[in-house]
Amino acid sequence: MNRLSPRNICQAGLRTTRRNGILGILSLLCILLIGMATAPPGQAHWADLAAAEVKVNNTDAQMTLTFPTGLVPFADSDKSGQLSADEVRTHAAELQAFFGEKIRFMNGAEAGTVAVSPVEQANIPLSSKVAPNTHSTLLLTYSWVQPIQTLQIRYNLFLPGVSTSSCLATILQGKQLKTFIFTPTQQTYAATPGLPDFAHGGLWVAIAGALVWGAMHSLTPGHGKTMVGAYLVGTRATPQHAIFLALTTTITHTLGVFALGLVTLFAAQYILPEQIYPWLSLISGLMVVAIGINLFRERIRKVGDRVKVAHTHIPQPSVSQAYTQAYASVHLSPNPVHAHPRELNFADTHHVLDEHQHYKSDHHDHSHGHDHSHGHDHSHSHNHSHGNDHEHNHGHHSHLPEIDGDPVTWRSLLALGISGGLVPCPAALVLLLSSIALGNIGLGLLMVFTFSLGLAGVLTGLGLALVYAKHLFQKLPTPSHSIRALPALSALGITLIGCGISAKALMQVIALRA
Amino acid sequence: MKQLFFPRRSSPFWLTMLLGLPIASIVLVATQSNFQSSLDAVISRVWNKEAEPYRYRYFESAERMENPIGRIEQEIALYQERLRRDPMSALSLSSLATAYIQMAKVTGEGNWYLLAEQSAQQSLASLPYGNPEALMLLARVAEAKHDFTGALNLAAQVPDHKDSIGIQVTSNLATGKLDLASQAADQLVDRLPSVSALTLRALVKTAEGKDTEALQNFQDAIASEEPGELTASARTRTLLGRFYYERGNLELAEALYREALRIQPGLPLALMNLAQLKIRQGDYGAADRHYAEILATSRGTPRAFDPLVLRGQARIQKLQGNDTQAQALWTQAESLLRQTLTTGQEATGSAFGHRRDLAHLLLERGNPQDIPEAVSLMQAEIKIRRDAETLSTYAGALLAHGQTQQAQQVIQEAIATGIRNASLYDRAAAIEAALGNQVQALGNQAQTSSQKALQIDPQFGDRARNALNLAAGLGG
């Protein structure tokens, strides 16, 4: 009968059992525990299922309950398996006491007074009814003197010891419908008019949940962790830089979700979110590639310079030097305009260091750490070189510490942070759109922000860990060649990651258009 | 060092760019967690031109509703709100019952049928005459309970109603009355050649063994689909995928399952059949992931398809040699299946009819003490259901119980329906071989049956046997 090749299975079983003995036993124990916790006793059957419609009004709540008749055998006088209207009226007092105990509706601390009435059933000709009756339907009305403020339903109408019996209830409060499944382990439903989901501290639970979800979600592949790590390791980053980078990613991500949410809402008929994601991923990936290539070119050139030129003096670089160098290293413009700013500040966006080094006209093999600039507005576009086989740059970055790698600029961090947060997580978008669908936009915005904060927490922690860990590595007696190559390698890493993101996005784009 | 970095000007940079980056990109992409499924989808779309006629055409214009539960809940809220204002509105009650049935189908939770039945009863009480919708809703609930006789009786009260004809098709198909099912299917298509109607007729043709006509009906169904019928479109592709699977065209079957999932992500029917296909291909990891995907959507209450998923997972463990885990999963599935059985009502159904599934489980678990119960279950089941697969399961139970002669009679009855199913002939071959007449078995009947199995599914073999009885969908 069974054609599963028992002989082969036994042999494979023996081999695998030996190999995974302990794991198998542990798994078995877990499964057995779960099974013991959920398996019903022998008498369990589908007739344990129940269903209810609950309508919450101003001062009363009505429950139309369909339940297994076997739970009220005292009322089923004719043993038909279904309570008739007469049987309900005859046993009204007993039924009221029974359901009042098993199903309680609370308005705050006040229990509602229950009244039981029959529900009119169709009189279908017997020739059409083949299956026997198993369920009955009653209308339970719970009422209070005061209007309902905080409604709580405690449902305990289960066959004793049957863990898998359940009652599915639809609860209509105002114009909002909730579906809730009562089980022996989940017997209480709590709702508040106007804020049904978040009564009794549920709002805080939701916020905490979004925070944890964001944090957990950021640990999944993607989200720029590797890129952030590679960048911070290869640069002279400080804890402030790490925090700034994480916050930039978070803010970009939050704004991205909001923007995409709005786009989805207002342009759902024309643009599908799943069509936007791959393109955003592609843009993000290409940005990262561009950043990585520029970093890589700068760093590998510096390594070359260091090899060629035996400068060993290490002056203290000024802040502006650091900004100048790293700022240029992330520049994305393919055809930069050469300019000499009066001051090196964040508004300077249009030059690349290796094409316009002109801080001093008397070129020689080292550059100086001073912070001068030209006060005039002419531009230069030449690349000067000496007649020999080496080239050098006249920025201020050739005096960098040999171990720390490059200094960072806020601008470079901003660019990196934006690229990391540009693609909104679908999970966050789901949060926002679900809340909007429920008519609570404010809650959606709050949840997305909290989600992003969780994401930021992880990225910040990671960044700080890398920044501090880097100092530890500096104390290790590492060969100097490796340390010199580290910034270049990290830049290469960024580039490769960008390529990976772009390639993956490209696959999605192709799949979308295929 | 100089040579290393600057053998020639800029060459390391370009060398890295031209060689290193593509290699690293490939490695990075290949290590993505969803790489396999993404690649499969791309390959399927780009290379499997055979599946091209079955692409869904309305992605751009159709409303995307990945989770139909939200939409149905909105409908339920609307009708309940109407009923709050007018509690006796028969129309609102019928509409509410319809929404409940939709919810039952989407979630697989049996409780929704109780609500649907209750609402339909109230509708009928409010409007006893001229209310065919309520009667049809009761018939659909009866059919869901596998109370086919009751469903047909109710349908007979409004014979010309569209839903009534549909119920005649499905219920007669389930009870093995293929002539009546075929007549009803023709009538349904003549009336409105919709996706659902043509798919139903395709299923009837499949059961009759008329493969060419079945395929034509499937193709007509896809050609006639309109935007918005996402569930019907996804279901048709899944059933067509199963049609191809049973004929050994696994590539096309997989492409169709994936297309169904693209139309309706997370569709349990498609996921279960895809998992079965993966088991047959020996890709147990993928199969397990598809099963886990179904279980992940559970809301805490047992669903109709959960036992089948657990059985599938048990099968995977068994095939991997993890007998203990397999036993534990079978025990879980058994608990759920027994829960659906109404004690003392075997002959009438009313239990969402999972006797056959339980019998499958008892037989594949391989405990000799379970065999008599499997036979008993199937004896009860064939009183209400005599389709080929049910008969085949019964024959298998009889064979395991040593009642080989009876098994042969039953399997011949199944073959006589005309259905082209390799597993049916494979079982017939096993029964012939077990009859003890080895010479005859090897020389004639069994060999012929095996040949027929291979004619239907040229790839039928041990791997196909590993995945038997794990399919989902109408007709077994």
Q: Any overview of this molecule?
A:
- The complex is a heterodimer of chains A (514) and B (476).
- Chain A has 514 residues and is of the alpha+beta class.
- Chain A contains 13 helices and 12 strands.
- In chain A, the strands form 3 sheets. Chain A has a 6-stranded mixed beta sheet. A 4-stranded antiparallel beta sheet of chain A has the order 4-3-7-10. In chain A, strands 11-12 form a two-stranded parallel ribbon.
- In chain A, β8 and β9 form a beta hairpin.
- The longest helix of chain A has 36 residues, at 273-308.
- Chain A is elongated, with a radius of gyration of 35 Å.
- Mean pLDDT of chain A is 65; it is low at 21-45, 192-200 and 309-405.
- Chain B is mainly α and 476 residues long.
- Among the domains of chain B are: 160-226, Serine Threonine Protein Phosphatase 5, Tetratricopeptide repeat (Alpha Horseshoe); 354-476, Tetratricopeptide repeat domain (Serine Threonine Protein Phosphatase 5, Tetratricopeptide repeat, Alpha Horseshoe).
- In chain B, α12 (211-223) packs antiparallel against α13 (230-245) and α14 (250-263) runs antiparallel to α15.
- Mean pLDDT of chain B is 84; it is low at 1-10 and 343-350.
> Which chains share the greatest interface?
A-B, 96 and 102 residues
Oligomer: heterodimer
Taken in chain order, the helices and strands of chain B follow as HHHHHHHHHHHHHHHHHHHHHHHHH
Q: What is the molecular shape of chain B? A: globular
How far apart the termini of chain A lie comes to 45 Å
Query: How does the helix and strand content of chain A classify structurally?
Result: alpha+beta
Give the tally of β-strands of chain B.
0
- State which percent range the strand residues of chain A make up: 5-15%
Round the Cα radius of gyration of chain A to an integer and report it. Answer: 35 Å
Low-confidence stretches of chain B: 1-10, 343-350
Number of helices of chain A: 13
CATH class of the domain at 354-476 in chain B: Mainly Alpha
Major sheet of chain B: none
Low-confidence parts of chain A: 21-45, 192-200, 309-405
Main β-sheet of chain A, in a few words? 6 strands, mixed
Q: Count the helices of chain B. How many?
A: 25
Q: Which structural class do the helices and strands of chain B define?
A: mainly alpha
Helix and strand succession of chain A? HHEEHHEEEEEEEEHHEHHHEHHHH
Alpha carbon gyration radius of chain B: 25 Å
